[in-house]
Write a structure and sequence with these properties.
The complex is a heterodimer of chains A (about 160) and B (about 200). Chain A is an alpha+beta fold. Chain A has one domain. In chain A, α2 packs across α5, α3 packs antiparallel against α5 and α4 crosses α5. The N terminus of chain A is likely disordered. In chain B, about 25% of the residues lie in helices and about 25% in strands. The model of chain B has no long low-confidence stretch (mean pLDDT about 95). Chain B has one domain: 3-Layer(aba) Sandwich (Rossmann fold), CATH 3.40.50.11310. In chain B, strands 1-9-8-5-4-2-3 form a seven-stranded mixed sheet. Chain B has a three-stranded antiparallel sheet with strand order 7-6-10, with no helix packed on it. Chain B has about 200 residues and is an alpha/beta fold. The chains are: A alpha+beta (about 160), B alpha/beta (about 200). The interface between A and B is small, with 12 and 10 residues.
């Protein structure tokens, strides 16, 4: 973060977009996949909890058709966590559900992804595989839905 | 202003239990005015805050409590960032709207500037948390009133003269009034609006 703060606004926005992407991937990954990949890395960073993983509710808001008045859609369970590495970097995670270990791992990964010496390693061995797996799942689902698609066409129209 | 991540420190180790213990201490301090309580559930506080006032903040402040900070605290990134991150409390500029005010003793505004509540809802007044250089039970103030069997003595260092005079006089406006906490290091003492104060010298 401290490095990003000194850079010009465009790079800062890029850094923010990149962080949003990996935080999203970490949060959406299944807990088992994430733990498996994480343990394979055998990273044992020293850290301290700024906010221990805690579970609560958050209100989801929606708009009809993406344009109407915002309304309260419903509440969902959320677990959040913040850790600080011994270097001072802060890692944060917000995940759906109640899995505290998932929240801790995601927060640690977020912190290490901001560190220059672990960023590339984690991008290649954690984020990319998880992103590919998520993309494949989305595609498989889209394909399954697509296979039920029906094309209606008319052979003969009764004009007369 | 955004939260500055490198100034963030850890909150309570066990948020539910620790906040309840601190609340218990604050309740005892309020119900037995002039009793010195010790709160040591956090190892460190943001720079500029006493340990006990930081614990009171973690316990009492939330997204629904408007908090006013005295000028030196309002300019302190560590204080602001940690309050925003851990308490999510809105920080306001106007003392008259504050539910809580967190002040250094040397920066106390006039007591009349705070929210005194109204006759229908005297409970809506500002609760004041003051960070002071020293608290002791030397005989300087003699306290009497509910929660005190006969009388109790208390000396709070560093309070400006106008504040001491206003506080003593404010008892005439009961049930309106300002409830006050005084914090120094791990120590905590409270003077609710029901406590009558007599100054010895």
């Amino acid at each position: 973060m401290s490095v990003a703060n000194q850079q010009d606004p465009t790079t800062q926005a890029d850094a923010q977009a990149a962080r949003q992407r990996w935080m999203g991937i970490l949060a959406k990954a299944s807990s088992d996949d994430l733990q498996q990949q994480w343990q394979a890395l055998q990273l044992e960073p020293e850290y301290q909890f700024i906010r221990k993983p805690e579970t609560g509710l958050t209100m989801l808001r929606g708009r009809l058709g993406g344009a109407g008045q915002p309304f309260n859609f419903g509440e969902m369970t959320l677990t959040r966590c913040a850790v600080r590495l011994s270097s001072g970097t802060l890692g944060v995670s917000y995940i759906a559900g109640r899995d505290k270990q998932h929240a801790i791992t995601a927060a640690l990964a977020d912190a290490l992804l901001q560190e220059a010496d672990t960023a590339t390693l984690l991008q290649n061995t954690l984020i990319t595989p998880l992103a590919e797996k998520q993309a494949a799942q989305v595609q498989a689902r889209a394909a399954a839905a697509n296979s039920t698609k029906v094309d209606f066409f008319t052979l003969v129209r009764g004009e007369d | 202003m955004a939260v500055i991540s490198n100034t963030l420190i850890a909150g309570f180790n066990d948020p539910v239990q620790d906040a309840q213990q601190v609340f218990r201490a604050a309740l005892k301090a309020m119900s037995e005015p002039g009793t010195l309580m010790a709160c040591s559930f956090t190892k460190e506080a943001p720079e500029g805050l006493d340990n006990s006032s930081w614990q009171l903040a973690l316990t009492l402040f939330d997204a629904d409590t408007k908090v006013w900070l005295s000028p030196a605290l309002a300019q302190n990134d560590a204080v602001i960032s940690n309050l925003r991150f851990h308490c999510q409390c809105p920080l306001i500029d106007n003392t008259a709207e504050a539910d809580f005010a967190l002040c250094n003793a040397d920066e106390l505004p006039f007591l009349a500037d705070f929210n005194w509540g109204n006759a229908e809802y005297p409970d809506q007044s500002t609760s004041l948390i003051v960070q002071v250089p020293a608290i002791s039970d030397e005989p300087f103030w003699t306290l009497t009133g509910p929660g005190i069997e006969t009388q109790r003595s208390l000396r709070i260092a560093g309070l400006p003269e106008h504040f001491r005079a206003d506080l003593i006089r404010s008892r005439q406006r009961f049930p309106l009034g300002i409830d006050t906490f005084y914090c120094c290091g791990d120590q905590l003492v409270a003077l609710p609006r029901t406590t009558q104060i007599e100054e010895a010298c």
